[in-house]
Automatic annotation (TrEMBL), chain A:
Pathway: Amino-acid biosynthesis; L-leucine biosynthesis; L-leucine from 3-methyl-2-oxobutanoate: step 2/4. This is 3-isopropylmalate dehydratase large subunit. It comes from Pseudotamlana haliotis. Binds 1 [4Fe-4S] cluster per subunit. The keyword Iron applies.
TrEMBL record, chain B:
Pathway: Amino-acid biosynthesis; L-leucine biosynthesis; L-leucine from 3-methyl-2-oxobutanoate: step 2/4. It catalyses: (2R,3S)-3-isopropylmalate = (2S)-2-isopropylmalate. Belongs to the LeuD family. LeuD type 1 subfamily. One of its GO terms (biological process) is L-leucine biosynthetic process. It comes from the Bacteria. The gene is leuD. This is 3-isopropylmalate dehydratase small subunit. Catalyzes the isomerization between 2-isopropylmalate and 3-isopropylmalate, via the formation of 2-isopropylmaleate. The keyword rRNA processing does not apply.
Length: 464, 198
């Protein structure tokens, strides 16, 4: 029977099928962080259970770590306690731990691929919805709740009904100034934030084939924002090139065996999907969001859509625009902004900082803008320095911070004040996401850079 | 963590007719710094419920004493966003045992089922009818029967059935959780692990 990429990976990880119930689903690699794991360990302890395969779990501190002075003790006692709890739990159960100051530290979804934890055909989970990022490598990767973190720790399995399958095809060539982030935001604006709920997505077509691994990670990262549990892209030479030789990828004969398997990881010609949508690359322009969910996005040169044309009902639309301080049918170009954030598991990789640099080079940060440039990991930070991007940033009046999730969810001190506007390369523009009362405009690193040097929402194509 | 059994529930409901309620609204990230599961109900819908100075926002439904009950009525696509199970804990800890909506985000729904909160998905028409009935009379009760998989609005007699897989239903009726099941098949899991290439 013909199978999709998703079927091939899913079916090979089913330990047991339960009639009228979920599959007992095997997890190859498990990532944990300080926020969603502590209660799972409390659960283990209260039941007197152990961690079945500590070598399959990797602990990384990222959600509430500070992005300056990481060599000093963490000031916030609650954050410090969570970070210490992660370290203690990792030590007690023999789990590797990349804490603050460790050379491999960074955002869990950035360091996973960097270290070869992420492999094609693998199943990867983490108590974080943006685990979908790892699907860029042809893995099945998705976010889980803390009860499931406990299940994986103690049995390496979770109980999951198999999702339905959806394929999103985009063919053609992307226009100038259009990045993988714009592709993701465009898809969400078309599908809405619940358009892919219940599905697992496969991205297919030339746009994704031609995309770098970093770009593919950005797109797969955003799968959850259309409601999908995850998204994946068939592995190809680019994927194999990226993972080869990384710390935790198979070596020697094991590599050759793995490659034989990985080359089979694509949807069969006649594979069927429960839902299939196709978009044209040429229709996508640089995107920006105007509302309080990632589906409320639009081409940057357009006007804010009317209530009737937006899914979600008028009450929800009005509440959203009132929160943002915007009105129906206004244009976004020229809107004053206060903060710019580049970073997060969506856009905190080297390619994103290269894009940001391409616009700020030779220009100056606008006086009214506070900018936070936060690399996704120490590896990214080192590359920024190596490639001379740091010099470009500093000459333009920007400061580079240390890695972490930072202003994406504002669990540390990187909070946008109430009422202020932030152009952010992160993934969620929910009310208060970047700090109580903060207003978020999601966009690509190019749009963020254009805003950072002009102080207002600006079409990056004018500056390229 | 095992939880209370869920069989039938007859209760008034708290109406929140907003669509796309995300988990950052249910429990904002700054309240996720605990290392135990206690007390999240205090911060349920924190920023919709309280002003910056911690005074209650009078126009928010949880601050309106005429609405109470163990059932939360939400708009379409309830629980979107983050995978934080803290959102489900907050709903439970506040005192809700059931969330009724016309559509749920996937991870939130899963998390609810894992901790003993029943997500009940019904048609948009029935959801509207319930909202209207509750606004008309806040003492309106709903009856949820998990064994029969039905939700009834006795004041009008309207009833709908809802979906839940047999396995999860059994867990909720008996107060079991998945770890009990998974622990019982450890040998099978160990054998499976030996066949994994990486």
């Amino acid at each position: 029977m013909s199978k999709s990429l998703f079927d091939k990976v899913w079916d090979s990880h089913v330990v047991r099928k339960i009639e009228d119930g979920p599959d007992v689903f095997y997890i190859d690699r498990h990532l944990i962080h300080e926020v969603t794991s502590p209660v799972a360990f409390v659960g283990l302890k209260s039941r007197g259970l152990s961690v079945l395969y500590p070598e399959r779990t990797f602990a990384v501190a990222d959600h509430n770590t500070p992005t300056i002075n990481q060599h000093l003790p963490v000031q916030d006692p609650l954050s410090a306690n969570q970070l210490k709890t992660l370290e203690n739990n990792a030590n007690e159960y023999g789990i590797s731990h990349w804490g603050l100051g460790h050379e491999n530290n960074g955002i869990v979804h950035v360091v996973g691929p960097e270290n070869g934890i992420t492999l094609p055909g693998a199943t990867i989970v983490c108590g974080d919805s943006h685990t979908s990022t790892h699907g860029a490598f042809g893995a099945i990767a998705f976010g889980i709740g803390t009860s499931e973190v406990e299940m994986v720790l103690t049995t390496q399995c979770i109980m999951q009904p198999k999702p339905k399958k959806m394929r999103i095809n985009i063919n053609g060539t992307l226009n100038k100034g259009v990045t993988p982030k714009d592709v993701g935001l465009y898809i969400i604006s078309q599908l809405t934030t619940s358009g892919a709920t219940g599905y697992f997505v496969e991205y297919a077509g030339d746009v994704f084939e031609n995309m770098s691994m970093e770009g593919r990670m950005t797109v797969c990262n955003l799968s959850i924002e259309m409601g999908a549990r995850g998204g994946m892209i068939a592995p190809d030479e680019k994927t194999f090139e990226y993972i080869k030789g990384r710390a935790m990828t198979p070596k020697g004969a094991d590599w050759d065996t793995a490659m034989e398997y990985w080359k089979t990881l694509k949807s069969d010609e006649d594979a069927t999907f429960d839902k299939e949508v196709t978009y044209n690359a040429g229709d996508i322009e640089p995107m920006i969001t105007y509302g309080t969910n990632p589906g409320m996005g639009m081409g940057i040169s357009k006007n804010i859509p009317s209530a009737e044309s937006v899914e979600g009902g008028k009450a929800t639309y009005d509440k959203s625009l009132a929160y943002m301080g915007y009105s129906e049918s206004e244009q976004m170009i020229g809107k004053k902004i206060d903060y710019v954030f580049i970073g997060s598991c969506t856009n905190g990789r080297i390619e994103d900082f290269r894009a940001f640099a391409s616009i700020v080079k030779g220009r100056q940060k606008a006086d009214n803008v506070t900018a936070w440039l936060v690399p996704g990991s120490h590896v990214v930070e080192a590359k920024i320095k190596e490639e001379g991007l740091l010099d470009i940033f500093e000459e333009a009046g920007f400061v580079l911070r240390e890695p972490g999730c930072s202003a994406c969810l504002a669990m540390n001190d990187d909070k946008v004040p109430a009422g202020k506007y932030a152009v952010s390369t992160s993934n969620r523009n929910f009310e208060g996401r970047q700090g109580p009362g903060s207003r978020t405009l999601l966009a690509s690193p190019l749009v963020a850079a254009a805003a950072a040097v002009t102080g207002v929402v600006t079409d990056p194509r004018e500056l390229l | 963590m095992a939880y209370d059994k869920f069989t039938t529930l007859t209760s008034t409901a708290v109406p929140l007719p907003i669509e796309n309620v995300d988990t950052d609204q249910i429990i904002p990230a700054r309240f996720l710094k605990a290392t135990t599961r206690d007390g999240f109900g205090d911060n349920l819908f924190r920023d919709w419920r309280y002003n910056g100075d911690d005074s209650p926002k009078q126009d928010f439904v949880l601050n309106n004493p005429i609405y109470s009950g163990k059932i939360l009525l939400g708009g379409k696509n309830f629980g979107s966003g983050s995978s934080r199970e803290h959102a489900a804990w907050a709903v439970y800890d506040y005192g809700f045992r059931c969330v009724v909506s016309s559509f749920f985000a996937d991870i939130f729904k899963n998390n609810c089922l894992n901790i003993g909160v029943l997500p009940v998905q019904i048609s948009p028409e029935f959801l509207n009818e319930i909202f209207e009935a509750v606004y008309e009379d806040p003492k309106t009760e709903l009856v949820i029967d998990l064994e029969a998989q039905t939700i009834t609005l006795p004041s009008s007699g309207t009833q709908e059935s809802f979906d839940i897989n047999g396995y999860k239903k059994g867990n909720m009726l008996n107060g079991f959780d998945d770890i009990d099941y998974l622990q019982s098949m450890k040998g099978e899991i160990e054998t499976f692990t030996e066949s994994r290439p990486f």
